[in-house]
Amino acid sequence: ETGVTQTPRHLVMGMTNKKSLKCEQHLGHNAMYWYKQSAKKPLELMFVYNFKEQTENNSVPSRFSPECPNSSHLFLHLHTLQPEDSALYLCASSQDLGTSNEQYFGPGTRLTVT
Amino acid sequence: GQNIDQPTEMTATEGAIVQINCTYQTSGFNGLFWYQQHAGEAPTFLSYNVLDGLEEKGRFSSFLSRSKGYSYLLLKELQMKDSASYLCAVMDSNYQLIWGAGTKLIIKP
Prior knowledge:
The structure holds 2 protein chains of 2 kinds. By secondary structure, chain A is an all-beta fold.
């Protein structure tokens, strides 16, 4: 039990669809993250939120749109994706930003874009 | 650029010891993390090193040399359940984690 949940666990969508990924953390953490994990590649940090405010956007295409309504919930809105966007999308949280703050990960959403 | 290098795959025998190496070049250093990720599951935290030396935690130990840009994760008394990917990550000067691609560890009976 990691305390970070993600839904859905699997998602298949066409390039013209719009869908949203949801993440919820039950740990009372202040920072939340979206990562993309592709096979045999390093985790790619997409977005960082601290106290609901976005602090990082690592050159992510605008077809990915994050939303953080409160410190416990994080969404990733998807529209007009490309097949190369197929990957595992991981949400994580940490107590705060900064040193020694280990990140707790959710189980991920396996996304397939057809 | 920033870079984390670790072997793609390693194989070891149940009951043995294995060392997984990680070398890094990053803009600044605010600590090094090791995570374990079983297939189809979330990464889970194993260790954090910010000072040089060895940190021991049960069967797992992690070593850091900041001057060499080098760390290793040592797993003793290997068990079949240790079959997983092991991810090395460095926190840079902007407090962002830079991740390696992971080392897939295969344990054979």
